């Protein structure tokens, strides 16, 4: 089978972002926070300063590279938390039904009714800025889609022969959920998770831009944009490069999600066999 | 006979709740299966065979429930047991295989793992040991190259191979009773015969009792020592397999026997249609008064249309439920 172009491009962009994040200390030219030097302030991009420098003379390239660490950590960890919450709630709700299902449904609808960024904003306002609060705020507010998918998959998988057979063979509820249901719904869950990761990277940027996420001087892409706000006409490179990093990472994750959908979606899978 | 039978069903009624009302989907079901015995349950589609089997393993779910009667496994009533204890019976002491080997296996899990899971779940083995036992189990159902096959996914196996895997899973823990609900209807005739033979041999070797469920009287009588014929939620006749062809007592059983192709007959060669029993099984909500078979019965008289027949004992442990039995 021919792998989709979106899968390859998206995968490559995401892999690049991961690579940069993992090897940031080796890829960066200078320390992103400490190496301020007013002699080099606001240099435009050049052979020495690839992405230029900011008002304090810090190397933007090094800051973007280090920013990948923070942005990706937030994106991956918060989406993992969302996936775990969504799958746990959706799976148990679909499996057990009854009042628990009603409760989870109500909660999901509530979450869907409030824009998740507003919700995250409120949590950040309570917890205060910082990486940990960012992870909590973004990790708790974006599980509703995963939950819906998990619940719907459970409802349709529950009547499958192998789930019935497992019950007949003496599997307990937990074992049925883990061995029979979860692996069979993993495809759509991964797709939603990939797309959600892109959303989390964007949300981190938005919150940091508003001054509620990562605070300067630590370089997240959002906080860099926030700092660059006043110099957008005089030193556009301060905004362009972190903006480009956000754009490419989110684009990569969305393409990857779409590409994965093509190979993991049960319908397209059955079409091939 | 010493001690209680392996499983004993006494006057079982299964209720189907439809809206506010309840109807009996099966009622007055009684039978017993001894250790190592082979017992068959035969009847047309919808007669209540599968739900009776589900009741035996304590897995009836809404809208179905046990309305009356008792099911005893080794003398202990199953309904009274706590859920956790019921679960240790299922798969471990009582196992079951189904009609559809295509769908009864988890598509995303290698078959070896699905067999091994049984040893982990019921025998407390670690995965290393369980995987080794899974290869043995696969070898015992005559799957060639079992040490390689354990890594196969269900879609890589043929229907017959999958049903062998199902048998391996079902017999993994050495159950005392194997319930086989139409185990071969989805398979080719030749594969069917192989699978039945395999199941029968393995159970005979291990002393596992079989409860075989099918609409095919010929098949069941061939495998089982005793056969119960179900019609519209009731057992209408129970006989030794040999007696059923020689001298069946119930008009419905007679109909089933007549509809079987005889060796060498024109029907067996496919030239004429088999004699079928005219009419259809009534719906649960619409069982006729008196004997439920009366609208289709040639021997029916007035009493059949008003009074349900009681059980009459025949010789050699047989019984029949008919006013005018042969
Ligand atoms: N979950 C259910 N809800 C409602 N009715 C049911 C349910 N399960 C079974 N029934 C009804 O109970 C009756 C007996 O069903 P059962 O599956 O036991 O029949 P069967 O003898 O096994 O038939 P078959 O040969 O088709 O498998 C049928 O009329 C069926 O419609
Ligand atoms: S009781 Fe009457 S109707 Fe029923 S099977 Fe016997 S003869 Fe036929
Ligand atoms: Mg059935």
From TrEMBL, chain A:
Membrane topology recorded in Swiss-Prot or TrEMBL: Multi-pass membrane protein
Keywords from the named record: Cell membrane, Membrane, Transmembrane, Transmembrane helix, Transport
GO BP terms: transmembrane transport
ABC transmembrane type-1 domain boundaries: 68-257
Location of this chain's protein in the cell: Cell membrane
Main location: membrane
Matching CDD domains: TM_PBP2
Pfam family, one: BPD_transp_1
GO CC annotations on file: plasma membrane
Matching PROSITE patterns: ABC_TM1 (PS50928)
Presence of the UniProt keyword Transmembrane in the record: yes
Listed transmembrane segments: 6-28, 72-97, 117-141, 185-214, 234-256
PANTHER family named among the record's database cross-references: OLIGOPEPTIDE TRANSPORT SYSTEM PERMEASE PROTEIN APPC, PEPTIDE ABC TRANSPORTER PERMEASE PROTEIN
Family designation: Belongs to the binding-protein-dependent transport system permease family.
Entry protein name: Peptide ABC transporter permease
Lineage: Bacteria, Pseudomonadati, Pseudomonadota, Alphaproteobacteria, Hyphomicrobiales
TrEMBL record, chain B:
Pfam family, one: ABC_tran
Coiled coil: none
One Gene Ontology term from the biological process aspect of the record: peptide transport
Keywords: ATP-binding, Cell membrane, Membrane, Nucleotide-binding, Transport
Bilayer topology term: Peripheral membrane protein
Stretches assigned to the ABC transporter domain: 7-257
CDD domains listed in its UniProt record: ABC_NikE_OppD_transporters
GO MF, one annotated term: ATP binding
Name the record gives this protein: Peptide ABC transporter ATP-binding protein
Species per Swiss-Prot/TrEMBL record: Bradyrhizobium jicamae
